[in-house]
Each structure stands twice: as structure tokens, then as C-alpha cells.
Amino acid sequence: MRAFRLLLARLLTVVALILVGTASAGVPAATAAATVQSGPTQTICGWAPVPAGWVIVSQTTAGCSGYGQRTIMQLTTETTVQACSNSPIPDGWVITAMQNTSGCASYPLYSLLRITTQTTVTDCAQSAILPGWVIIAVQTANTPCGTYGTYTVTLQTATTTYQACGHSAIAENWVITAMQNNAGCGSYPRYTMLKITDQTTVTDCAQSAIPVGWVIIATQTANTPCGTYGTYTITRLTTQTAIQVCSQTPVPAGWIVASIQTANTPCGTYGTYSLVKITDQTTLQGCGNSPVPAGWVVTSISSTNSPCGAYWVNSLLRITTQTDLQVCGNTPLPAGWTVTGTVNGSWCGVLVIQQIKKTG
Fold it and tell me: Which three-class secondary structure state does DSSP give residue 194?
């Protein structure tokens, strides 16, 4: 009898194992393998997304219906970790080395470093440059990063000036004042940067972005610290109501081009624009290449004895209390107005004359 009970118990155990196996087999292989393990690492299928703050530390091509499996690890207090190169790089981490390995299937293995209190780091060139950091040196030979090479990057804390490689991001209100080739930045030049603070006039390199509220008033192409780019002299718009600027300057909002000069200018191959600030005027004369200010319309154009070179002159009218106007066809239709017809006439040259009416 005892032998029979023992045999029955073993039989029930076998049946239970078979039932468990049948239940697992009824789940798609990829889903079953995606079940995570406990502990600091988890195993997921290759098709599953890697959660934020986790990295892939190893992977295989087997399992999960051909998708392979990944071992992922959650980053907590680590400051360094090795992760497969197809792993998402968490914010605040950089790549410092790479190597081929069988543990990441066909991907190389990255050495990652968390940025904490460091102010200067050497990382791989394919690593993202963190906000506020700039590249100060480039190395392409004998690096731990293969063909990518390395960048030496530093946290930019200067308040007025610094030097950085030319492919570094340039923060707003900083301009390039000089450049130097073959200065440790590989194929890139080294830039000298200047912060715009309370200056009203600055000479910077022509490839530098023009800060908002500044205009170009002169150019120089020979014997400059900016190589073939040359330099711009730029000035800040403050209390001026009229100013001459080089024609490559975008026309600032609230200003119009009143005349153009193309010969004997301080702008080299560029002409100069005479700009007039829109204040309390109700009528203005503006060159045809000047944007029509919001709230204004073109009432006639003229090309006779034009002070605008190849451009005609627009006669501009500010909309105040008018409810019905005749405007030239180059007038952007003001908000709250509609075109009610056209008018015969020659005061708009070859442009159509539109009758517009206020609807609001």
C-alpha cells in the first residue's frame, strides 16, 4: 500500500509538470522570455524597449522567436558601467572607450562614465556633448575609441571669453572673434569666443551668428584674425532712429530700408542700407526689398529716380481709422480686412490695385 501511494505521488508530480509545461507553451515564445528576473539585472527580448535609466549589459541572438535576448541593468549609484553600443545612453553619461566583444552579439561594448563633479573629460567623439560643455581638443590616432577618436571636453564656466574647437556648440550671445587652424582640434579650427554683455560695438568673425538686436555696419576681408571669413563690425541698436547697415544684415523688426547705396561703402562687396525706425509716423517711403510692416499698406510705387537702386520705392500708409483703402498688390492683407475688388490705375506700376475693406 505504501508503495502504491509513493507511485501515485510521483505520477501526480509528473502530471503537474506536464500541465505547467503545456501552459507555458501556450504563451508566445517572445512573451514568455520577456518576463523579467529579480535583482539588479533583468532579461528581456530584443524587441522590447529598454526602460529609461537602464542599459544593455549583454545580449544574445538566440531565443525570443529569433529576436534574441538582452540583459539590462538599472543604473542607481554607479559612476562607470560597460554597456552594449545599441544601449540608450542615459542623460548625464558619456562614452569613454569601446571594444569588440562577443557578449553584445554584433555590437561593440562601450565604457560609460557618469558626469558628476568633473569639469574636464576625454570621451569618444560619437558621444553626445552635454549642455554647457565645449570641445577643446581632438585626437584621432591611438585612442580607445577606434576610428571615432576622442574629444577633450570641458565645462564652460568663463564669463567673458574662452577658446574651443570650431564644432562646439555656441551659446546664445557669444560671438567668434578669432580662429586658428592646426591648433589641436583636428580638421576643425580653434575659435576664440567673446560674450556679449554691455558692449555696443564689437568686431567678430563673419561666420559668427549676429546677436538679436545687432546689425552689421562694416566688413573687412584682408589681414583679419578670422582667415578667409573676414570680420564684421557689428553694433547694438539702442536709441538710434536711423542707421546705415551692410546689406547682408537682416532688416530688424520695426525698421524699414529707406535707401540703398552700392558703391564706395564700408561693406566691401555688399551695399549699404539706410534704415529708418518706425516710431509715430503715419506715412513712410520704403524700398521694395523692405518688408511691409504689420499694420501698414502700400498705396503706390515708383521707380523713377529711385534711391533704392534696382528696387522701386513703396509709399507706405499706417492703418489708423480707415475702413476702406486702395492698396498695391504687394501689400500683405491686414488682419480683419478683405479684398472687395480691383481698381484700374497706374500708381502701382505693373501690380494690381486692390480695393480692401475692414470687416471687423
Answer: strand
Integer Cα distance of 285 and 164 in angstroms: 46
Strand order in the sheet with 283-287: 283-287, 313-318, 296-302
Give the per-residue pLDDT at 40.
83
In angstroms, rounded to a whole number, what is the distance separating the alpha carbons of residues 208 and 210?
A: 6
Q: Which positions ≥6 away from 287 have C-beta within 8 Å?
A: 256, 257, 258, 259, 260, 273, 306, 307, 308, 309, 311, 312, 313, 314
Residue identified by cell 542607481 is 76
Phi-psi region of 110 (alpha: psi -120 to 50; beta: other; left: phi over 0): beta
Tell me the C-alpha distance between 276 and 245, whole Å. Answer: 11
Per-residue pLDDT at 112 exceeds 70 = yes
The amino acid at residue 72 is I
Give the separation between CA 304 and CA 324, rounded to whole angstroms.
28
Q: Dump pLDDT digits (tens) for 195-215.
A: 999 999 999 999 999 999 999
Beta-bridged to residue 84, according to DSSP, are 109
Q: What is the pTM of this model?
A: 0.78
DSSP letter for each residue of 117-131: S-SEEEEETTSPPPT
Sign of torsion over alpha carbons 196, 200, 204, 206: positive
- pLDDT one-digit tens code per residue, 77-95: 999 999 999 999 999 999 9
State the pLDDT confidence band at 1, using cuts at 50, 70 and 90: very low
Number of Cβ within 10 Å of residue 35's Cβ equals 11
Contact (CB, 8 A) for 192 and 211: no
Amino acid at 75: L
pLDDT digits (tens, 9 = 90+) for 213-227: 999 999 999 999 999
